[in-house]
Amino acid sequence: MSRFIALIHRDLQLSMRQGMDNVMVVMFFVLAVILFPFGVGPEPGILARIGAGVIWVAALLAAMLSLERLFQTDYEDGSLELLALQPLALEIIVLAKIVVHWLTTGLPLLIATPILAIFMNVPSDGFWMLVFTLALGTPSLSLIGAIGAALILGSRRGGVLLSLLVLPLYIPVLIFGVSAVDAAIGGFPVNSHLMILGGLLIAAIALCPWAGAGAIRQALET
Amino acid sequence: MTTFSGTDLLCFRGERTVFAGLSFGMDAGDALVLRGRNGSGKSTLLRLMAGLLKPEQGIINWSGENINEEPEDHNQRLHYVGHLDAVKAVLSVSENIQFWSELRGCEVNVPKALEVFGIGFLADVPGRFLSAGQKRRVNLARIIATPAPLWLLDEPTTALDADAIQALEKAIATHRQEGGMVVASTHSELGLTGVETLNLDNFSIARSAA
């Protein structure tokens, strides 16, 4: 456990000292959402209708922006090779990296969400549900994304390939995240949506570190 | 029985056979120097020994157990120095070494490890200000900081100056006296005594005088 914390501590330290990267992800999120009122017009009814969906899609794209570097920098400077040679399961190492990715990407997005929800005129019934679904959904995004980030190691133009690999896998999370918010706004029961969202998260926790570690081993063999 | 041995190893890279029917054996205190032309498979053999690659055929054993069956146990007993130095640009030298030592779950005396390679004065300098040779010294200090019986060194003298090579030779000698094993690939002469040399061009094994 202390080794797991040492890993998280080191990656947080690296991310804090590299500074601007995480701020840029949040800026992208905010700007992407702000573009919509310009595109579809400032009519409050339309914005209220599409607000939750727009915020979810923007969060999904923003989370993907920073995925490319999840393992890439460690791969390039030889650290990943050494990490794989530590007396610690590679799956645990992958999980630590995912936790740090969520802390530096998912959490800031979550904090920015309430402001954007007001900006998009999201109805008050769905307001906290939106924040809650993102809290439940963004960890899944980091987990699923880690598989893609591990698969692109060693390939050129990894970023584009990464989005092709990962975006289709994000669809279920997006569907149930947005439909929970819509159900809350419409006054319908939300439990089933939230349970599926939670189920996706649990499945991702169980499967993704394992798949990511497999992909990294593959990359290190070349 | 030898502690660390490989039997009848076969390895492909792409379509090409790098080596076939290669065997080696080592005991506590032994050193094996790998020689051979570029592309003869020195790095590949070291990666096989570390468990990063798996042989197509043959097995590598530690005390009679296949290293690929319990990779974490094997990782605990080896230190690997590859072509890249894994020094993080934004972490200071001592933070870099501290991190790797924590992962192995050992208490560590970082200043002492730095002193072995004469880089104590760099302890608080961030990795991005280091020269190639200094980075290599940091990487070598990392393997001194925590104990492990098996050292796998891939061209460890790259970018090192004469002083640092001497320090490395001394460190290897101390390591062997304490019962450690060293496998190193090199093109230059490492001033080691009583080593076996494995020439990968023709698989001949020669033993130098002690």
Describe the SSE topology.
The complex is a heterodimer of chains A (222) and B (210).
Chain A: H1 2-18, H2 20-40, H3 44-65, H4 69-76, H5 79-84, H6 90-119, H7 124-151, H8 158-186, H9 191-220
Chain B: E1 4-13, E2 16-26, E3 31-35, H1 42-50, E4 57-62, E5 65-66, H2 71-76, E6 78-81, H3 93-103, H4 110-116, H5 132-145, E7 150-154, H6 162-177, E8 181-185, E9 196-199, E10 204-207
Parallel strand pairs in B: 3-8, 3-9, 6-7, 7-8
Antiparallel strand pairs in B: 1-2, 1-4, 4-5, 9-10
What would your notes on this structure say?
The complex is a heterodimer of chains A (222) and B (210). With 222 residues, chain A is mainly α. Chain A has nine helices and no strands. Chain A has one domain. In chain A, helix 3 packs parallel to helix 7, helix 7 runs parallel beside helix 9 and helix 8 runs antiparallel to helix 9. The two termini of chain A are 31 Å apart. By secondary structure, chain B is an alpha/beta fold. In chain B, the strands form two sheets. A six-stranded mixed β-sheet of chain B has the order 6-7-8-3-9-10, sandwiched between helices. Chain B has a four-stranded antiparallel β-sheet with strand order 2-1-4-5, covered by helices on one side. Chain B is globular and about 50 Å long. The model of chain B has no long low-confidence stretch (mean pLDDT 89). The chains are: A mainly alpha (222), B alpha/beta (210).
